[in-house]
């Protein structure tokens, strides 16, 4: 891809509307490119189409026309979620046309340094934490990407006095070529989204693009407890700043036990060991404002990015202490008759659900199930045996979830009919779960699956859960 201004008078195809597609279309149109935007949804489902049409941008909805991609097209910018298997992308590849995502475009047009955050789990919480830390330190962050604003829009607004804090998915990163964040954070890598990527190798390679163009002047923040992250550390050209929940590091951010008479006690401290070997306490683990070992990992990663950006350690500690979480990520919804209800709709893979259950100190009534991507969910078996008291399953995977629950010896197992109205289905699931629970238990929505079999998004799923809980 060339710089966007070099496409003046040339034909550009934007695949997919939504926030990012609209922002990219406007940018290229203002720079004088001949822009066509295509979305397979019907026009009545594309409210952004009228705005672009009014600007003189061609918008085609309802299908992917056979003549959309041709030799005169110079660039295709695709919505990250659109698979590479669709016909327009295949045609563009055959013709040798550059295919990128919005991230690549934003990297060309911004004058602000970027912090990029990716990982299988924990991206949104970590991104939010970093944004809050930088903001409290007066460093003028703009949070964008998968969270907040469209990245292209934010990139155009940003000045050299800003820092773009960007949540990035593997889908977005796969479509990058020259993208170079000043700080790149890889939180963890688990097998997920393989229906999109086709293999774990492609998934890892897409995540690794976060570091591809970094130099020794940049920083790569990596999870030292994750074997894939540790392997990638030997391949990056940036300065590596590791974090660890399990290991005391010679350099980096890690959790250190408090020692009394040469014996470790339960209190643990997040610390930063600098390159001189000096150790600086940041915060006690028990003081972090949101629960769960996975959130401690997120806190370590956020601290690394903030330290590299020049945020004082006391500011980092204050934000870690005061933050109470992001909606749909282990969000406390209500307490009813001693039963706690948590919304963790963002848990769209089994690993996220396992980590969430392990972070709770109560027996769990789990509401799970959703889009079937081919997993057998057997990795849930140990935590089902040890920590889960009852299951309410829904969605395409409900029978698979029930099978694992039965293997775990669970007696309280229910399914709900997903042919009903979606809100009614969620309401029934919440009622069934509440009936299984006793004071001191947790009713947890943590589906271990994507939401698209029944819902438009995990946010819609979580919002319906919360409404149902409040209406008990």
Describe the structure.
GO terms for molecular function: ATP binding; UDP-N-acetylmuramoylalanine-D-glutamate ligase activity. Belongs to the MurCDEF family. Keywords: ATP-binding, Cell cycle, Cell division, Cell shape, Cell wall biogenesis/degradation, Cytoplasm, Ligase, Nucleotide-binding, Peptidoglycan synthesis. It is found in: Cytoplasm. It contains 17 helices and 20 strands. The protein is globular and about 65 Å long. Strand 12 and strand 13 form a beta hairpin. The strands form 3 sheets. Strands 7-8-6-9-10-11-12-13-14 form a 9-stranded mixed sheet, sandwiched between helices. A 6-stranded mixed sheet has the order 15-16-20-17-18-19, sandwiched between helices. A 5-stranded parallel sheet has the order 3-2-1-4-5, sandwiched between helices. The mean pLDDT is 92. The protein has 472 residues and is of the alpha/beta class. The N and C termini lie far apart (54 Å). It has 3 domains: 92 residues, 3-Layer(aba) Sandwich (Rossmann fold), CATH 3.40.50; 218 residues, Mur-like, catalytic domain (UDP-N-acetylmuramoyl-L-alanine:D-glutamate ligase, 3-Layer(aba) Sandwich); 140 residues, Mur ligase, C-terminal domain (Protein-Tyrosine Phosphatase, Chain A, Alpha-Beta Complex).
Summarize this entry quickly.
The protein is an alpha/beta fold. It contains 17 helices and 20 strands. A hairpin with a 2-residue loop joins β12 and β13.
Side-by-side strand order of the widest sheet: 7-8-6-9-10-11-12-13-14
Structural class: alpha/beta
Question: What does the overall shape look like?
Answer: globular
Helix content: 25-40%
Q: What is the CATH C-level name of the largest domain?
A: Alpha Beta
Strand content: 15-25%
Mean pLDDT: 92
CATH superfamily of the largest domain: Mur-like, catalytic domain
User: What about the largest sheet?
Assistant: 9 strands, mixed
Q: What is the name of the CATH topology of the largest domain?
A: UDP-N-acetylmuramoyl-L-alanine:D-glutamate ligase
Function: Cell wall formation. Catalyzes the addition of glutamate to the nucleotide precursor UDP-N-acetylmuramoyl-L-alanine (UMA).
Keywords: ATP-binding, Cell cycle, Cell division, Cell shape, Cell wall biogenesis/degradation, Cytoplasm, Ligase, Nucleotide-binding, Peptidoglycan synthesis
Pfam family, one: Mur_ligase_M
Protein name: UDP-N-acetylmuramoylalanine--D-glutamate ligase
